[in-house]
Design brief:
Elements lengths: L5 H12 L5 E5 L6 E7 L10 E7 L10 E4 L29 H13 L9 H9 L1 H15 L6 H9 L1
Antiparallel strand pairs: 1-2, 2-3, 3-4
């Protein structure tokens, strides 16, 4: 990690030392610019009870350029597309070098609490959210149970099928 810019080292140390509730970000052992992120679905949101995997990558230009972040866990959200890309202003035109990894992750967590169908990335999901919010919320809850619950991946799923 000594070849890393000091800012990245400091941000990484702070992320590890000062945990944010519902967010875990661990640097990859082979690449300190790549982070394995888990965001827990916020309470009282359609994503509550879910554990969402994301990847975050700091480009060479960071902090002058925004981190690259995407969901690895499938999610039904108007601001997140099928590839896991996120429509969030601070990841695009509102990025500022004053922002940090922590700010980005808190903003993504907030986006889970307050989907914005008026600025969509997944148009079909946004249309559903606008035309029948109750059905959209039920679908988001169902996808959270299917794809983001503790039983949706790995050996837990295999154990459940074996019974």
């Amino acid at each position: 990690m000594s070849a890393m810019p000091r800012r990245i080292i400091k941000e990484t140390q702070r992320l590890l030392a000062e945990r944010v509730q519902g967010i875990s970000a661990m640097p990859d052992e082979a690449n300190a610019r790549y982070f394995h992120v888990i965001i827990l679905g916020p309470k009282d949101s359609p994503f509550e009870g879910g554990s969402f995997k994301l990847e975050l990558f700091l480009p060479e230009e960071y902090p002058m350029a925004a981190p690259k972040v995407r969901f690895m866990t499938k999610i039904y959200h108007p601001n997140i597309d099928k590839l896991g890309r996120i429509c969030l202003d601070i990841l695009k035109d509102k990025w500022s070098p004053a922002l940090q990894i922590r700010t980005v992750l808190l903003s993504i967590q907030a986006l889970l609490s307050a989907p914005n169908p008026d600025d969509p990335l997944a148009n079909d999901v946004a249309e559903q959210w606008k035309s029948n919010e109750a059905i959209a919320i039920e679908t988001a809850k169902k996808w959270t149970r299917l794809y983001a619950s503790e039983y949706s991946s790995g050996s837990c799923l295999n154990d459940r099928r074996a019974k």
